[in-house]
Design a protein that fits this description.
By secondary structure, the protein is mainly alpha-helical. The chain is 64% helix and 0% strand. The model has no long low-confidence stretch (mean pLDDT 88).
């Protein structure tokens, strides 16, 4: 049996013969309990705050963002002080959000500051898909023997991301409208942000060269290997899946709000009350006749 010091725990030095972490135990007790607690918190927040004002709801999103920011800063400080030679490439690898889940985490952190519907929309959609993938088949975090800081970081950030992403929707911060004053202010801005995330991914891959496949679309990625198909076929399937996935949010929102919007349109306009007109009447005093 290996004993760990606090330093080893913080810097995630796994006490195995190879020094490498063991494979995550998917659907073990820790995995299942964490997932159930996460779902319970999500439901609890939605039920407790459903009738509260935005002044009450927004601090919840800010608190979740602050927790994520703590883990993001802590991990970067640890990786910069672990004894590795700090080069420009290494500093970029540590400091820049690289995989899609990390990008989503930083979107949650920035969401209360940006405070725009399109930003909340894309943040929620990206966060949910990443957390579903993580909890369905975790590759990190839920290890059967040792849970070190890197594992705690992975579990905590995905739990917080999942709670934040769904709470953004249930608490009313998102609004999946195709048309909001104009199509650009509606789906247009959402689409522009999604395109921006993909542009950012290409910058990571080809310009900064700090991540090989942040959004899971490059050749020979894990999903493609599981499906056992050619890259061209995978790209078609990938594109169709994302179009359907993102489109579901707008379609569900349309179905949920259609009746309300029809009621607003059909509701008779209230006639403005006519202002009472006051006529100023002046009375002249009759002077008494001179005698």
């Amino acid at each position: 049996m290996f004993l760990l010091s606090i330093t080893d725990w913080i810097y995630s030095r796994y006490p195995t013969e190879t020094g490498e972490p063991t494979k995550a135990a998917a659907w073990g007790p820790l995995h299942i309990i964490t997932l159930l607690l996460t779902i319970g918190i999500i439901i609890g927040i939605a039920l407790l705050l459903r009738k509260k004002s935005m002044k009450v709801k927004k601090p919840i999103i800010i608190a979740l963002s602050a927790c994520l920011l703590f883990f993001e800063i802590a991990r970067r400080v640890i990786n910069l002080t672990n004894g590795n030679t700090i080069t420009l490439d290494y500093a970029l690898w540590v400091l820049v959000p690289r995989p899609w889940c990390a990008i989503s985490v930083w979107c949650v952190i920035l969401a209360p500051l940006v405070n725009k519907k399109f930003f909340y929309n894309v943040t929620a959609m990206c966060g949910i898909i990443n957390c579903v993938i993580f909890f369905a088949s975790p590759e990190v975090g839920f290890r059967p023997d040792y849970i070190l800081f890197e594992d705690v970081y992975s579990i905590a950030t995905h739990v917080l991301l999942f709670i934040s992403s769904i709470s953004i929707i249930t608490l009313g911060f998102s609004e999946f409208k195709f048309y909001r004053e104009s199509y650009f202010n509606g789906f247009g801005k959402d689409l522009l942000m999604i395109v921006g995330i993909f542009v950012y991914a290409f910058i990571e891959i080809y310009l900064l060269k700090i991540e090989k496949d942040p959004l899971y679309f490059m050749e020979n990625n894990g999903v493609q290997k599981v499906l056992g198909i050619e890259w061209g076929e995978y790209l078609v399937l990938y594109t169709v899946f994302l179009v359907v996935y993102f489109g579901c949010f707008y379609f569900i929102y349309y179905l949920a709000t259609r009746n309300k919007e029809e009621e607003i349109i059909k509701a008779p306009k209230r006639e403005k009350k006519k202002k009472k007109e006051f006529v100023k009447v002046t009375y002249k005093k009759n002077k008494a006749p001179l005698k």
